[in-house]
Specification:
301 residues; alpha/beta; 3-stranded antiparallel beta sheet
Amino acid sequence: MDQLQAIRAFARVVEAGNFTRAADSLEMPNATLSKLVQELEAHLGVRLLQRTTRRVTVTPEGRDYYDKTARILRDLEDIDTSFNSVRSHPRGQLRIDVGGSTASDVLIPALPEFMARYPDIRIDLGVSDRPVDLISDNVDCVIRGGPLDNSSLIARQIGAATLLTCATPAYLKAFGTPAYPDELKNGHRLVSYLSPQTGRAFPLRFERDGEKCEIKVDHRIGVNESNAHLAAGLAGLGIIQTFSYALESALKSGALVEILRPWRPAPYPFHVVYPQNRHVTHRLRVFIDWLLESFPKNVNR
């Protein structure tokens, strides 16, 4: 038995919550992973995991073993990283999750420079507005906008985007151009952005001279993905409120027109987020540093 490989396999099962996801993240057959854990249990003479057809539960002994060996795995990675960073460029795989419009309008256009700077880093980019579990999904970091409420994560702000309220010229010709946020309640059609987590519509936010307000009205259509949300606005389905970087092309071409400009809300913060109990690899560290350096400044317009 390769004890180190078995320990890593066991740790991934604990973090992923089941054998299938753990095997996928380690790129090994499920049967191989299961055999490694069984061999480790036989070597230790204790049951580490309680298996049923539906779930995997960590035993008290398994939890204690995981806590102790996790420190060893982190120390080993620290040692490897210290040598690798001296003799070579950072290398290996980075799993990053990012929202749809942030990926297409901000991150992906900037990535060629990062890939040229660090040619030995391979990136797996998950693009979705749905929140991921960084531990169980084995994701190194996520890039997200908005306030953060998970204290088990480390977040570093990398930028901020302005929320703009827009509609097509044809829509404004048909329904009129509102001068105040409250006018949106009087017969206007809204395209709401729906929370991918709860399915609830986010209210439209406005602010002027310290006065803040939120508009919550029944929407004509709701969309839970940022690129599709923009597409609905471009199709003339109603008024949308979204990030300035996603609207840049449409505003320049005249496909969309900004309304309620004096009521733009305060900039919306963007963060790179990663688990606080996971070792920050050299490749993740250089990616975060690059984000802080290169996240487009025009995202703040």
